[in-house]
Predict the structure.
Amino acid sequence: MKEIVCKLLVIGAGPGGYICAIRAGQLGVDTVIVEAVKAGGTCLNIGCIPSKALIHAAEEFEKVRHMAGGESPLGISVEAPKLNLAATVAWKDGIVGRLNSGVLGLLRKAKVKIVHGRAKFRDGKTVEVETETGMQVIRAEAVVIATGSQPVELPSLPFGGPVISSTEALSLPAVPQKLVVVGGGYIGLELGTAFAKMGSAVTVVEAARQILPQYDADLVRPVSKRLGELGVRVLTEAKAKGLSGDGGALVIETVDGKEQSLPADKVLVTVGRKPRTEGWGLDELDLARAGHFLLIDDQCRTSMRGVYAIGDITGEPMLAHRAMAQGEMVAEIVAGKKRAWDKRCIPAVCFTDPEIVTAGLSPDEARAQGHDIRIGQFPFSANGRAMTMLAEDGFVRVVARTDTNLVLGLQAVGAGVSELSSAFALAIEMGARLEDIAATVHAHPTRSEGLQEAAMKALGHALHI
Ligand code: FAD
Ligand code: NAD
């Protein structure tokens, strides 16, 4: 049996783990990272990146199909396009492969030792890994748990056969004719929209009163409108009960308590993700929990000395950039630097059509925290660049304190607004006031002018509405 002794052991090479290991390596910390499947984790292999590749391909296909239907106001006409999903998936796999090798290269460059295999805790500072070349024991002074999350399975709809998770949806051999999506959250709507654009007849079954229940109704309205245009049927306050006897349909209970059968070639279940805590000795460590997730403090320390946790295993928001920021911070703490989680916001983007971006507090959240607020909202229908791009749906909204004009939150819905996420986060992180945003020269013609106009609107002197 081989044994490695190191200063830092990182378990899991997703965005949290690999960033932590790279930064620790850069700081000269003797670091080992263990990965059971593939470097890059959920995000790079079966999450953020492959989903955005499919979403982009679907968007391009739909644009051309729209033009072929003679519906383009731009005066462009084309022959009816065809989609070869196997080729699209191969292109997506190529991107994933390039990024995967890139992460391994960065880890090597930072002199991190990579061990391939599944780690199992022996005690809080020791793991054993079954590798291709035999059992490897690793002992460390500090351990970072970064094992991420996995899809929630509904007891009445176990994965298998026609019932698939996002992982299978990202690598289907052909576009399903009829797709039923259970769960109208991030994944269900991002992928449901993509399949609708690729030609599937899509039905979304959502248990809550609205799709994307984490966002306010104003932000969700343009997304609902577009789903309607794409022919996506949305059933809210509906519950999935199970597959029909022949497996060719999903039986649901609708809001009025009646049963309905929705024919489906595939049923994509996207009802959330749960932390990967079971089956590898973590339970025996008996770390303090926050619900199912590991409880951490503002330095990502768990209840056991020298054991840290980062990323999805530590709970909401389960976003790659949060995991990365935690990973970078923990590496610096292990290297002896003084750091604590002091971020003012974690921006979130939903890559629906149109996209939604949020940073900081929504109007309701600000009020709930006792703030007296002013709100400025600027519609893209009054933005020249948006008009030239046929992207007039949506708006930018700013939430600020009435007394100081300090910006508490920024939200937008509209085509391509994901790229506003950095301006939003920067404004909040830098403690911007409405006057700072209003006084910043924004390039013309861009949709980002909506941000400046929203701030001006909140100050009572918008120029273009
Ligand atoms: P993970 O990425 O889950 O990585 C954990 C790693 O640990 C995995 O590689 C796993 O194999 C490994 N591991 C687990 N157990 C062991 C063990 N015992 N031993 C060794 N290795 C182990 N987030 C965004 O911010 N933007 C997006 O656009 C976005 N899109 C998404 C789309 C989809 C379809 C999905 C599913 C998720 C998406 N997410 C997105 C969420 C994002 O993927 C996660 O927040 C992120 O991957 C979490 O990173 P992590 O490092 O905590 O864990
Ligand atoms: P989610 O929490 O975003 O959405 C789940 C949805 O399923 C909710 O709307 C919920 O009301 C609904 N639901 C729950 N149980 C149900 C049931 N029995 N029947 C019908 N509906 C039900 O979860 P997700 O879409 O699975 O995504 C998981 C996580 O992955 C997200 O929370 C997010 O953190 C991350 N993610 C992020 C992005 C991004 O940043 N763009 C993209 C994809 C995933």
Observations:
- Residues 216 and 364 are 8 Å apart (CA to CA).
